[in-house]
Amino acid sequence: MKNSSIAKRWSGVAVSLYFSTLTITTVAQTTTQNMATRTKEYAVGACHFRIQSGKFGGRFEVHSDATPAVGIFTFPDTSSRNSVGLSNGFSLFCVDATDEKIGTMLNAKQINGKWLMYNPWPGRNDSEFTPFDRNAYPRTVQFKGANWTGTGLTVDATTGDEKHRARTFYFCLIHSAHALCGKSPVQWLAHPGKHNELWKIKAILQSVEFIDEQPSLESNPASGSTSAPTQ
Question: What is the per-residue pLDDT across 57-76, written as a single tens digit (0 to 9) for each?
């Protein structure tokens, strides 16, 4: 009877330790996940914003010494072993939110509901825009964020080795006077149903939130103090 009582007691201790360990492990995993997806503030040129820098195991870095300044988001390659990885991330550039600048970053402009590409070799009497190749299939991508409007499209490559032709996503996140723009291949055309990273890149971009700079207080030279602008 005594041995049976001791066995039951140790059994209860073991169960208690198991659930305690399980709780600690769960809390640690949750903490790690929260740290990995935490939102940080960055500045790329004139664009100030927050982004979940660790989303999908990724990493975001700003290269302010580059010309122009650029933000680079990289994430692990999740493609199958039998295929070459599409891309390990994308770049973000800050531009003025004008039709000309955004059109340049997208390499296209929507005119009368139809996407046209910039003419790479315009003649003296040629239009600035020209239709895409027949098999490029430009498609509008609709997405938006906390305080910005997204404009983007996917374009299929029509030249080069058919095995390595990709569908590329061009995008701009427009907020007030500025926009964050970039591009990234998202799908191999030779294997359209196997690997598509468009959803992943959209999810990362949708974590972006622009930060509006607060107007600084005007300094009063006479008193040496600061005061808010008078209305």
Answer: 999 999 999 999 999 999 88
Dihedral pair phi/psi, residue 18, rounded to 5°: -60, -50
Task: Report how far residue 43's alpha carbon sits from residue 50's, in angstroms, rounded to the nearest whole number.
Answer: 9
Residues 6+ apart with CB under 8 A from 60: 40, 42, 51, 53, 71, 72, 73, 74
The DSSP code sequence of 145-170 is -SS-EEEEEEEE--SS-GGG-EEEEE
Asked if residues 120 and 106 have their Cβ atoms less than 8 Å apart, the reply is: no
d(CA 92, CA 159): 26
Helix (H) or strand (E) holding 143: none
With H, G, I as helix, E, B as strand and everything else as coil, classify residue 187.
strand
Boundaries of every domain in the chain:
39-210
Q: Is the distance from CB of 175 to CB of 147 less than 8 angstroms? A: yes
Query: What class does CATH assign to 39-210?
Result: alpha beta
Its pTM surpasses 0.85:
no
How buried is residue 56: exposed, middle or buried, by Cβ count under 10 Å (0-12/13-18/19+)?
middle
User: 162 and 186 in contact (C-beta within 8 Å)?
Assistant: no
